[in-house]
Design goal:
With 569 residues, the protein is mainly beta. The protein has 4 domains: 2-116, no CATH class; 189-326, Sandwich (Immunoglobulin-like); 381-430, no CATH class; 441-568. It has helices spanning 2-12, 40-54, 85-96, 162-168, 296-302, and strands at residues 16-17, 38-39, 189-195, 206-211, 217-218, 223-225, 231-233, 241-242, 246-251, 266-267, 279-283, 289-294, 308-311, 324-326, 367-371, 375-379, 413-414, 417-418, 424-425, 429-430, 441-453, 460-473, 479-486, 491-493, 502-509, 513-525, 528-539, 561-568. Strands 24-23-22-21-28-27-26-25 form an 8-stranded antiparallel sheet, with no helix packed on it. Strand 18 and strand 19 (424-425) form a beta hairpin. The relative contact order is 0.07.
Length: 569
């Protein structure tokens, strides 16, 4: 390996190349030293960086790498997050100003297409985007309270961000102040999301890893296994880091045009998410178990067609199937999931409810309310019920009835009662001795006689042969009048006083042709009243009559009637 690298140095030691004006990649392409020229020194610098990467990048990067540049200071020319031999090969092509292959540089601008890709259209290039396939997660995005990093700063739901608290608020102080709890991601790497395949992507699967720790973790040399001897060792020829609070997608097919549209960070080919063993293990380079998922068969069965399953919370136990849920977010026209980013479609709400303020000020004479913006409000009304003084807007207050008594309200006697809300109650007042319901039967002269029929069926619609009326008081305290010899419901209305009082009661029989029975009268003395008994008819849809009834007014012998009567009890 080292001899191969040294031979490159000999071949290209005298080559130089200079170019300006690349919008995304290094300018000129391959200028990792930042001196404005692409020369063999840049290739040498890449080679030093490869050795540094192979050693795990534990020391400071080589001094030859410029401290500024785009896309970053690292000589990762193909933007695959790994510094390896591929980058040295590209560096040589940059020195020669040789065109890159069509598969790498379709627009022939000497910038690898992967470096210019923005799959989710959020303005962050994929290689710098902490969630390259989620357009709501990017550098500068508002951080919300959801247990994930929304703005790619590696911090989760940081309280210093005003948008975090705002995302929990329901915009009213009357429910208290909603808060976002302190969220701690697991300080390790977890298996975060699994994709078992899609109908249009044969032999396609991917595994998403999440690093919840405070520092990047190098997974070079780590191993995937199924617990039954099938293993794959991750080997990229250099360090492959999962960023702090970041994600890494491992998959079987790196071709984004033929793999459901997922950006694969590392391709494996000696392992498969087979469900026979029902297990996926992740071990580090020292073979220590880092994470494990069981019940793969059950998880695969819960996934939507062409969809992944993911953890609702990265702190949840992978051994429990209920910790996972089927993804509902689409990352392409072919598949569901959130590869390379937080499982925002599965995360459960974590905002904590506030404590509503106690707006009771203890003063019975104030109206206590809560305004969504101003909070508790205490308003003293014009009248204060309960102070023993009848004021404007009150019917009474304690024993102060303002001079009103039962006699003044038309009762024969008794006592008024003041309710706690300062309204009058006449429940203890005594009724007038000429209560029309005592006794209740009134015999009328002449009898009210009338009948009519349905012309088609011959059925009798109205049949009145009323000789007397029976007065009573219903549960609501109103007058109810029934007719002896009438085939209609009891008529109701306000209770009259007598002598000299008047009353009107009525009942309505609904149908295609509505019938209204009305009785009106005026007392001439405490036992006698004169008035009118009437029946009227109204055709649907007028007068509130329902449609759809087959009976029609115009096809009956029924006509409006009115009968003068005198009734004595």
């Amino acid at each position: 390996m080292r001899k191969y690298v040294i031979s490159w140095l000999v071949v290209f030691c005298l080559l130089t190349w200079s170019q300006s004006g690349m919008a995304v990649c290094l300018s000129p392409p391959g200028d990792v030293t930042g001196n404005g020229m692409t020369t063999v020194a840049d290739v040498q610098c890449v080679i030093l960086a490869i050795f540094w990467s192979l050693d795990g990048q534990v020391d400071l990067p080589p001094d030859c790498i410029a401290k500024t540049g785009s896309p970053a200071i690292w000589p990762d020319h193909n933007c695959d997050a790994v510094i390896n031999v591929t980058d040295a090969t590209l560096g040589i092509q940059f020195v020669f100003s040789a065109p890159l292959s069509q598969s790498l540089d379709a627009n022939t601008n000497h910038c690898v297409d992967t470096c210019e890709s923005d799959l989710d259209g959020d303005g962050d290039f994929d290689f710098t985007d902490c969630a390259p396939q989620n357009g709501l997660v990017f550098s500068g995005a508002p951080e919300t309270c959801n247990g994930y990093d929304d703005n790619c700063d590696t911090a989760i739901d940081e309280p210093i961000e005003p948008s975090v608290g705002e995302s929990c608020s329901n915009k009213t102080v009357c429910d208290g102040i909603e808060t976002c709890p302190v969220v701690s991601a697991p300080n390790t790497v977890v298996i975060h999301e699994l994709f078992f395949g899609a109908p249009n992507a044969i032999n396609m699967e991917w595994i998403e890893l999440f690093n919840g720790g405070d520092t990047p973790i190098n997974v070079q040399g780590w191993r995937l296994g199924n617990g039954a001897g099938l293993n794959h060792i991750i080997d990229v020829g250099g360090a492959l880091f999962i960023p702090s609070r970041g994600y890494l997608v491992l998959g079987t097919n790196p071709d984004i045009n033929n793999n459901t549209g997922v950006r694969i960070n590392y391709t494996y080919d000696t392992y498969t998410l087979g469900n026979a063993t029902g297990k996926l293990t992740l071990r580090n380079a020292s073979s220590a178990l880092v994470d494990e998922v069981q019940n793969l068969g059950a998880l695969a069965a819960t996934a939507n067609e062409g969809g992944s399953v993911g953890l609702r919370n990265p702190n949840d136990d992978n051994f429990v199937v209920a910790s996972f849920a089927a993804s509902t977010a689409a990352y392409s026209d072919e598949a569901l999931g959130t590869p390379g980013g937080p499982n925002v479609d599965l995360a459960l709400p974590i905002c904590q409810s506030g404590t509503p303020p106690n707006c009771n000020d203890g003063d019975s004479c104030t109206v206590d309310t809560c305004d969504a913006t101003l909070g508790c409000q205490h308003v003293a009304p014009p009248a204060c019920c309960g102070n023993g003084v009848k004021e404007i807007g009150e019917e009474c207050d304690g024993s102060d009835f303002g001079g009103t008594n039962c006699l003044g309200l038309g009762f024969a006697g008794g006592s008024l009662v003041c309710n706690t809300n300062c309204t009058l109650s006449t429940a203890l007042c005594e009724e007038d001795v000429c209560d029309p319901t005592k006794p209740s039967a009134y015999f009328n002269t002449p009898k009210v006689v009338y009948s009519c029929n349905d012309m088609f069926t011959g059925l009798q619609v109205v049949n009145m042969n009323i000789s007397s009326f029976v007065f009573s008081k219903n549960a609501s305290g109103n007058l109810a009048v029934g007719a002896t010899g009438g085939n209609f419901p009891s008529m109701t209305g306000a209770m009259p006083t007598c002598p000299g009082g008047s009353f009107t009661v009525q009942s309505v029989v609904l149908g295609g042709c509505c019938e209204t029975y009305k009785l009106s009268g005026t007392y001439t003395n405490e036992d006698t009243w004169t008035g009118t008994m009437s029946v009227s008819f109204c055709q649907a849809p007028f007068c509130g009559c329902p449609t759809g009834d087959s009976f029609s007014c115009q096809f009956s012998t029924c006509k409006n009637q009115s009968f003068p009567i005198t009734s004595v009890r």
